[in-house]
Amino acid sequence: MASTRLGLRSFRQEITNATQWPNKSNPNEIEPEGEIDKFVPASDIEALTTQSRIKEVLKILGRGNLLGRIHDADPPVKKIFLILALAGFLKVTEEFISESFSPGDFSDQHLPITFSEIGDRCVVKSAQDSFSSGRVLQDSNLDHGQLGWFKILQWQFLSPIFNDGFIFHLQASIPLPLIEKDAGQESGFSVVYKVKLHPAHIPQWPTGYLAMKEINLASVEVEYVMREMKNLESLRELNHRHLIRPVAICTRGNQAFFFFPWAEDGDLYSFWRRTDPTGDENLVPWMLEQMVGLSKALKKLADKNCRHSDLKPQNILLFPEDGTKGTLKITDVGLSKFQVMVTSRRSKGTTAKHTTERYSPPEFHRMSEERLRKHVEGSGDLKLSRKFDIWSLGCVFVEFLLWARLGERKYRRFDKSMGKSERFWENKSISPESSDSESPLAVPDSPDYPLNEKVTKRLEELKRSLQQTRDDTVTRRVLRLVEENMLVVDCGKRSDASEVCNRLKAIQDRCKFGSLPNGSPQPLGLTGESFLDVPLREQQLLPADDSATSRVKLNMTEPLSSSEGLTTTAIPRDNAAAQRQIAKLRDKWTVTTDNNFARGFFSGSTSPASREGSRLCQTCSTFRIWEPESIISGSVEGLKARSNTCGMCKLLYFVSKRVGLEENGHLHCVRNQSTMNFENQPVLSLFADPGSNTHGLEIAQMGYPTLPPSDSPRQYELLRQWLHVCDTEHGHNPEAYSDSLQMPTRLIHIEDSKEHLEVIQESSSLQYAALSHCWGSSPKLCTLTSNLEAFRKEIPHNLLPLNFQEAIRVARALGIPYLWIDSLCIVQDDLADWEREAGRMGQVFSSAYCTFAATSAASSDEGFLARRTGPPLSAAIGTPDGGILHVSEFMEDYRQDLELAPLNTRGWVLQERTLSRRTLHFTKTQVYWECGKGVHCERLFKLSNPQATLFADSDFPKAILKHFKGGRITLFQHLYQTYSRRSFSHISDRSVAILGLEKRLLDAFQTRGGFGIFEVYLARSLLWSRQEDVFLSLIPCTKSRPPPSWSWMAYEGPITYMQVPFNQVGWTTDCVFPSDSEISTTVRGPALKVRARNLTLTRLDFLHRVKLDQDFDIKASDLRGVVLGKDKPRESREPMHYVLLITLSRDQLEGRKVHVRAGVAWLLEHNIAPASEELEVY
């Protein structure tokens, strides 16, 4: 008897050990208190009820006759057997599953059971609805207590298996098969847990974690939940990479559980806040890929007549993926509409979820609860309501761009500034209650609902930071799409998901050397641009057929950026050698000390008296800035409070406002050599006072933060020293190049007290300065045929514009006897003289002893010597060795002072600056010296920028070509792209203002050419195109012979170059450059000799593979193609053909019909006819 009890007790313990609950660590763990999901896994139920185990237990009981009934019956009674064993009721097994009942009368499928007492009998019934009408077991020999215990224990054997089916309805006491579960995180109307289900209960997800969203059905309308469950079931069919597909749904009493894949990397919001994007070259392509994917996901939802309604970074999850940052996926599809309803009700109180508020569109906040209910129910305007998501996605994209391009810290500041309830828009209209609009989504005109000022402020900062790199171009385009098509107050005019998806895909195609659907590569700068540039409403009006016979008119709206940053459109990212070359021209300035020059200068100059240390507060007096990796940190409020009594706090408070910190912000600066940086940007400069002990201050620039007075002996002393060092140590004196010097026809002699023009003999070798300046509306004084003779005697000094007077003053101070100024040294009303001298302009600046650049002046009347800014703020700190360290606001912003100055937007100035051997730039803040050894500023720092070597080459382009070996194509393409963005007072000068620079390049390349084309690189030279969003305009013919149509010089507007892989293309002989005699002729102009072929273009080909130069109506049948190059055979894709497009047009001069250039294209073999015809292209 004892052995029987021991055997049954052992079997009972096995069942107990098999029982699981969340986070159970070992089989013998004691069951925790409270309500938990306790269950026996299905796999253990099978293991405990094998034939041998049941036979063993029945043998102990002496009931071997029950083996077939328990093990072999169909349906089985295995769970009932285990429940009885766990309850200790195995002795009554026979009564409970008596053979007197037919098979199926009472089995596992009837569980759970309930019971009732009728007299002295207990009647057992199934608690399942499908079995509740019939009695299963009556006249039971079990008493009330035993059946009650059975009823309690049965639940842990009934945990569901999420296998077949998707929606499961469970009774309130049935446990979920959870083996791991975290503490959960509240999310609006639900709690989200990270869970793992027992693998036997979810075969399709046996090892991974899941997100379990638990919803309290008492807080939402149950009917909505049930309806959305059905919607989610249909969404399972949407197998989209950027949509999270629900794994299973189940209800249990007043609870609903939604199971989704778990995102190990969290949501997009937390990713932004923990990740620094700085220096990640692959970030923007990844970001753009994710944006395209998310928009495709919304389009997929819209196609299913579904919308999200609560799109925000917290509802976009990041899933890890090998080799990438991962994939973003939208979650809460369907569930979010409950959030909308809950939020609308809470918004009258104080608990509205701020994330939903921030990203919701204006129309949401004008809806009454009844109208909102209709929106949630889907009875409103479905097309309109789906555009809720577009606004929200636009907000997400804005934050994505701010994080990616401005950095994690600035994104955090923006996020914090938006607070808990601010939206992306501001309400400046009448209240919703006073509106009598009949439309539930009607909004007033957008002026009443402008973008939030905090949003626009950050967007303006972002725009100002953008240059012309690939990443910045992508950013600019996405931003334009967001502003013009997504964050549109009138949702009727807001783009839908399909439009946004198409636009983003076109941007992506241009961003990378990607593939069309058939796998053919697309050159960057051309991909999909025609399609992207068709206004969205016009795209919908394009013919539905696939022919390209219809005229397509493209309109551009994006303004051209004024940035001179290097574009990389000619460089494929998969060409490592080319990328190494382009890396040498990155447009990034660095500031370093030049103390060797400073020591020499201060040893022989009169320096200002040393300054005593500034009055410092207790905090600032502890700063040891001269030590490596020193830090300056403080709250903005604290700096402001102490700014009246502490010199350093005053300086730091000024800096904090300059970088845009709010009053509750925090300034944190880290030393980087001779500067203190805030968010990797220099904000403070460090100077070692040369009049004190500089020992231990080698990290600082020897000198003073204050500048010498403009037009003062101290300033000229520095300028003369720069010239002396350059003459004697750098070898950049033009006399070193005497063999190549050519004197201008005329110079202004300024050595005497009276200025006069002097005709210069070609054999002369005179020292002169050249003035580079902006004319403005027109200089007040010019040399004309009428005053030429008078000016040879004297040029009235008092009539000279201020720029000219100051240039004379500087030249005299530097001991330079002659000066060249274009408006005075060229006879302005003599066309022959102008054309002759204009062609020699490059030589004028190359032969000058020095060039004076009036950078700060926008016209000849303004003057350039006086500074436009006040003296820099600074503070002085004493060092332990008796030295003085000056800390000053950073003002060496070469890009802002010089690159973006009015002078350097002018077309003529590019050649003047590039060919000058050395230049003094008089900017609004200080003077910069530029020569082949780099750039120096008046505060003696040395500034470096790989791109600046283009302009600082004292013998252009020899030095740059040595440094940039093999990069000749990149060099000329970059220069011409830069030049094409410059402006002219007379646009007809476009073909003239670069002649000197072009001649230098032709000599360096040892080739023939002209009009911006090099014969040695003929095909690549001809494969220029308009910049993506700006059509070109043909420059009206004002000269005897305009540039040919195949030259970009014939057009007004910025250009770029087709991206063609290096070393992967075979060039054809279908195009021949004109002979020298044809180039110089004045009769008909130079013509390309070409073999032209007919083209077969579908409508899609015309949109995606063709890029026209001008905005005119043209039929695809009017175009013919000249194949310039073809990809070398590759197994992976069909070869691309790089094609010059031509068409018939009328000649500007004679009006005759001739073939002219129309654009470029990249086509496949089936687009091009095999037969060709010899033609001339003018």
- In spatial order, strands of the major sheet run 12-28-27-26-25-22-20-21-18-19
Instruction: Name the CATH architecture of the domain at 274-511.
Output: Orthogonal Bundle
Radius of gyration: 40 Å
Instruction: Enumerate the spans where pLDDT stays under 50 for 5 or more consecutive residues.
Output: 99-103, 338-355, 375-384, 430-447, 513-579
Number of strands: 42
Characterize the overall form.
elongated
CATH superfamily name of the domain at 274-511? Transferase(Phosphotransferase) domain 1
Summarize the main sheet: 10 strands, mixed
CATH topology of the domain at 274-511: Transferase(Phosphotransferase), domain 1
Helical proportion, percent range: 25-40%
Structural class: alpha+beta
Briefly, what CATH class of the domain at 274-511?
Answer: Mainly Alpha
Mean pLDDT, rounded to whole units? 81
Strand content: 15-25%
Taking the alpha carbons of the first and last residues, their distance comes to 114 Å
Structural commentary:
With 1178 residues, the protein is α+β, with helices and mostly antiparallel strands. Among the domains are: 2-158, no CATH class; 161-262, 2-Layer Sandwich (Phosphorylase Kinase, domain 1), CATH 3.30.200.20; 274-511, Transferase(Phosphotransferase) domain 1 (Transferase(Phosphotransferase), domain 1, Orthogonal Bundle); 1011-1177, no CATH class. 32% of the residues lie in helices and 17% in strands. The strands form nine sheets. The chain has a ten-stranded mixed β-sheet with strand order 12-28-27-26-25-22-20-21-18-19, with helices on both faces. Strands 35, 36, 37, 38, 39, 40, 41 and 42 form an eight-stranded antiparallel β-sheet that branches. A hairpin with a 2-residue loop joins strand 15 (675-678) and strand 16. The radius of gyration is 40 Å and the shape is elongated. Mean pLDDT is 81; it is low at 99-103, 338-355, 375-384, 430-447 and 513-579.
